[in-house]
Amino acid sequence: MTRNKSLVSAAIVSLAIGSTAAQADTLENVTKKGYVQCGVSTGLPGFSNPDEKGNWTGIDVDVCRGVAAAVLGDASKVKYIPLNAKERFTALQSGEIDLLSRNTTWTLSRDASLGMNFSGVTYYDGQGFLINKGLGVKSATELDGASICIQAGTTTELNVSDYFRLKGMKFEPIVFDTSDQTVKGFEAGRCDVLTSDQSQLYALRIKLAEPEKAMVLPEVISKEPLGPSVRQGDDKWFSIVKWTLFAMINAEELGVSSANVDKMKTSDNPSIKRLLGTEGGLGANLGVSDDWAYKIVKQVGNYGEVFDRNVGENSPLKISRGLNALWSDGGLMYAPPAR
Amino acid sequence: MQKDSNENPELKKTNLWNDANFRAMLFQVVAILAVFGFIGYIVNNALTNMEQRGIVTGFGFLTDQAGFGIVQTLIEYTETDSYGRTFIVGLLNTVLVSFLGIILATLLGFLIGVGRLSSNWLISKLSSLYIEIFRNIPLLLQIFFWYFAVLRALPPPKQSFDLGAGAFLNIRGFFLPKPIFEDGFSWVIGAIILAIAAVIYLVKSNKRRQLDTGIYKPVLLPSLAILFIIPALVFFVVGQPLSWDYPALRGFNFQGGLSIIPELMALLVALTIYTAAFIAEVVRSGIEAVSDGQSEAADALGLSNGQRLRLIVIPQALRVIIPPLTNQYLNLTKNSSLATAIGYPDLVSVFSGTTLNQTGQAIEIIFMTMGVYLTLSLLTSSLMNWYNRRVALVER
């Protein structure tokens, strides 16, 4: 039987190549290729969005850049693969991308049955409602009988159904294929409400023709921890992606930023020394160079910088840190120590 | 060679390779084995790889609870139903839009196709213009155009157009009173069936009489009378077993009654208009394929214009029209999957959209979806082939 199989597989070489490439060591593959293939969204301001020149920016993009900086020493060595919500898992499973960093919610079923591992949380989000101010609705509990525009291929459909069922309310789901169509449907008045993760609602609101006429309701109806994910079965690569994010968070906690990282290299603080690789040789065990975290912080920045630049103070979205503040500031961002 | 083997049967045995029949057989067997081996390898490869990566496979997910809502369902459906039921709901929505689309596109297409051959300059040019415009614009754009045109033209629920008789039109859809059938309505249905049978009998006996005696009596008016009067009589005799559920504005929108969502309207309009342009050309070519001599012969026999069309031209044109018309029906069914772009809950949107995303069972779901379109297409084409055999030229 096995002999038969190997005979056939030898005969059909092209297929065999497609199937084995994904199983090989991802780190080795990336080093050989010279770039990281990163699955991102088709365009979501603040998370992964291309500008008119095709340069990608956003929190999710910065995770990709961080991984490239840690592994290849150059944050620009990333090839972005825009994926819609339906394509993303297949792209990861089939080995088309090395890492999926595309505002994807970490859930049990995705961890358990899709052959993927979430390596951390880049943004703690929750689902909310965007509504036309003219309707005079102040709370989500007044939405009985409303038409709701939803984007297909997201966890939001399930959340909104659960929420309305629990409250004993009815709604009419209008499911669009892309985020643009969803916004158009909402703008045309097809639905009373647009539902999505709150971070997206703020981003979509500024895209509306008349943003001041719409408002985001206060209710958050779900937990949406968004984070990068990798294929199962490659623990080394899993650790690298996981620790790229941890390095950014630790750097913020230790006060290391892209501006002062060169000076910090000579710091006396042993935690900083270990993180930046001047002491301890921790990078080698991870499979990257010792100054991996230095490169991440130098080229991409710490978590606070990344947040402010893409979605926070210094961005058009102006989202406050909230749950995404460091644990020491009352938020949820907490990374295991680098030692 | 042939001669040789005939004269000397022993040579045939020794030179099997030279036997054309055997060679043909051998090549076919090899080809079939190769195809099946290839498919088997791909399936095995996919299964092995999925198992290695810890991806769950199989159709067990179909009995799991779906948990999401669907805007238009032809059968009873709630969030607590299974993924298997979302498949049925999506399938029925696809069948609904395809079926209505095929009927409307056929009617419109025949009208335009005949219009293009009209001797009236204006009608003929307008028909040509219609065909050239609508068959040359991509369908997806037309769907978007109709959808957003429909949405822009319609008012919000609180300013709905009141169409009278309890019907309302607004951006959320077209709301109609819903008939509620009470006890005794089965009598009325029985009466309708009876009336149809009577009409069929009337038409057939009339035709037989015409063949036997040459006397032709008009049957249209008596048929219509039978179709209306018998069911109406029964309806009143059993005490009008029918009431209406009127839609009423409550909260955000109209509740109750029957509603047709704007996505269905837009998709239906787009599919109908697009496919009708192709059908019109099919019809025109079919009619033009009937030689002028046939019409001239009909005129010489003294047939009226209507009789000439009905008895001579159309039966012959149909032979040419049916096969390409089948293609258009298949195209329409497959094109209906573009529904997902405007949020109409067809099979692709519901099942290979939401269900796929929630379960992650891409291969199984795409496989089932492909199976559905294949089955629908094969069903349509076998129906049309059956009809084609009926209208085909019978050599006598």
Task: Note down, in words, how this protein is organized.
The complex is a heterodimer of chains A (339) and B (396). Chain A has 339 residues and is an alpha/beta fold. Chain A has two domains: 2-124 and 226-329, Periplasmic binding protein-like II (D-Maltodextrin-Binding Protein, domain 2); 127-222, Periplasmic binding protein-like II (D-Maltodextrin-Binding Protein, domain 2), CATH 3.40.190.10. In chain A, 39% of the residues lie in helices and 16% in strands. Chain A contains 15 helices and 14 strands. Chain A has a five-stranded mixed beta sheet with strand order 10-9-11-8-12, sandwiched between helices. Chain A is globular. With 396 residues, chain B is an alpha+beta fold. Chain B has two domains: 2-50; 83-177 and 246-391, MetI-like fold, CATH 1.10.3720. Chain B has 13 helices and eight strands. Chain B has helices at 2-7, 9-14, 20-52, 83-116, 121-134, 139-153, 185-213, 220-237, 262-288, 292-300, 305-335, 347-359, 362-391, and strands spanning 161-164, 167-170, 173-176, 178-181, 242-245, 248-250, 253-255, 258-260. In chain B, strands 1-2-3-8 form a four-stranded antiparallel beta sheet. A two-stranded antiparallel ribbon of chain B has the order 4-5. In chain B, strand 2 and strand 3 form a beta hairpin. The longest helix of chain B has 34 residues, at 83-116. Chain B is globular. Classes of the chains: A alpha/beta (339), B alpha+beta (396). At the A-B interface, helix 1, helix 5, helix 6, strand 9 and helix 7 of A face helix 3, helix 6 and helix 12 of B.
